[in-house]
Amino acid sequence: MAKLTEKKSYLNAAPKSQKYGSIIVISSVASIHGGCWGPCYTMASHAALGVVKAGVATLKGTGVRINCISPGQIDVGVDQGVQRMTIELERAGKAREVASVAGFLASGFSSYITGANLIVDGGAS
Hints:
- This protein is 31% helix and 14% strand.
- It is an alpha/beta fold.
- Strands 1-2-3 form a three-stranded parallel β-sheet, with helices on both faces.
- Strand 1, helix 1 and strand 2 form a beta-alpha-beta unit.
């Protein structure tokens, strides 16, 4: 994909000193299979994962990695009885657990990971 304008012509662009980066897309477990979410939500989740897969080829040689996080059920105070039946860890995830995965992907510890879809659903899928 060729750039149409010089980077210096963008008003908000600033020169970067590092030659690497990490793009993290947050999707849903609906990105790997359909289900009770409805066709529009499932299609949007699949599209987010498609952007990641296409982005790998587009970003080749730039030093920028692109990955996806697909969380499952996250605790928002709903009935936990259903969670014990459907999730292997018998609880919904916490927002900080998904944030920890994002921190890992943004760090240098994941320097050889790109195009991945990390599923954070407690073993439910």
